[in-house]
Amino acid sequence: MKNTLYMLASEEFPQMNSFIITTADGKVIVIDGGWRADAAKLLSRLREITGKEIPHVDAWFHSHAHADHTEAFMEIMENHSESVTVGAVYFHFPSVQYFEKYEAGSAYTVREFYELLPRFADKACIVSEGDRYEVGEAVFDILYTADPAFRMNAVNNSSTVFRMTLGGKRVLFLGDLGIEAGQKLLSQYGDALKSDWCQMAHHGQSGVERDVYEAIAPEGCLWSTPKWLWDNDAGKGFNTHIWQTVTVRGWMDEIGAKRHLVTKDGDQVLEF
Ligand SMILES: [Fe+2]
Predict the structure, then answer these.
(1) Cα 154 to ligand 1 centre (Å)
(2) Is the pLDDT of residue 13 over 90?
(3) % residues pLDDT > 70 (the chain)
(4) pLDDT in tens, 39-52
(5) What separation, in Å, do the N-terminal and C-terminal C-alpha atoms of the chain show?
(6) What spacing in Å lies between the alpha carbon of 155 and ligand 1's midpoint?
(7) Domains of the chain as residue ranges with CATH
(8) Within 13 Å of residue 154, how many CA atoms lie on the same side as its CB?
(9) Distance (Å, rounded) from C-alpha 13 to C-alpha 15?
(10) What is the 65 CA–ligand 1 centroid distance (Å)?
């Protein structure tokens, strides 16, 4: 295997977030995974990429407990646990009580996650800011974890932000981070956020503000963004809906990002 990042496109219409990363020294990492409907494809891509009927995932990182990120993992833990082995599961989610209080409509996801926890409790690792995890050649630095003081956009703002360093490149994963947490991240790190690649917050719209991307100043952007969202089009044409993707695309061009990998074009592959 090589140092490679695969960004998977959704099997269905909605946005989702799913990455497989392989390292030249043979490690396999998954980030998020998408909806329940994306689980079968994720398993099939893992078999293809590893060449193994029962692939081993050394590290599975979760950004936050929204269904478009964690459901595929839960589907696999619940119904396909014989199809894959997992070394460690990294996450930092607020409590069920926090979800119920500040975003009750999303509480079912984190409740299901914790209900399934006994199936992977010996592999669970609750991450903290400042942690560093080495998965073969890939180094993961945890830059940000949920601040319960944020009650606006509560679950997106609870995203864990981490930076992967692999093959001399730094890839920043913002999850679905929102404005408030983005500003806290910026105040903590400033220009130290500089990275080569950036996973665009919240599928490229209504995520962090422009000044956060200015500090990151990526040469390339990873957009887990289907075509309707990329074009801000829910059926009435280009840039006719409420999403801010087209604005954010403009920011990134002005900031100087040269490469854009977008799941609207199908699964994306980036070698380091
Ligand atoms: Fe999302």
Answers:
(1) 13
(2) no
(3) 100
(4) 999 999 999 999 99
(5) 12
(6) 10
(7) 4-271 (3.60.15.10)
(8) 19
(9) 7
(10) 9
8: closest CA among 47, 54, 39?
Answer: 39
Q: How many C-beta atoms lie closer than 10 Å to residue 192's C-beta? A: 10
Q: Using alpha carbons, list the distances in angstroms from residue 199 to 138, 171, 216, 237.
A: 16, 7, 11, 26
Residue bearing tokens 């940000």: 144
Q: Which residues contact 99 (CB under 8 A, 6 or more apart)?
A: 65, 106, 107, 110, 111, 154, 155
Q: How far apart are CA 21 and CA 163, in angstroms?
A: 13
Please compute, for residue 26, the number of CA atoms within 13 A of its CA located in the half-sphere on the CB side: 3
Residue 230 Cα to ligand 1 middle (Å): 14
In contact, 185 and 193? CB cutoff 8 Å: yes
HSE value, Cβ hemisphere, 13 Å, CA-based, for 112: 17
Q: How far is the CA of 18 from the centre of ligand 1 (A)?
A: 10
Rounded distance from Cα 173 to ligand 1 centre (Å): 12
Q: Given pLDDT bands bounded at 50, 70 and 90, which one contains residue 1? A: confident
d(CA 221, CA 59): 23
Paired with 172 in beta bridges are: 163, 198
Distance CA 80, CA 19 (A): 19
- How close is the Cα of 26 to the center of ligand 1, in Å? 29
Distance 57 CA to ligand 1 centre (A): 22
Q: What is the pLDDT of residues 124-147, one digit of tens each?
A: 999 999 999 999 999 999 999 999
| Cβ–Cβ under 8 Å, residues 59 and 135 | yes
pLDDT tens for 65-95 read: 999 999 999 999 999 999 999 999 999 999 9
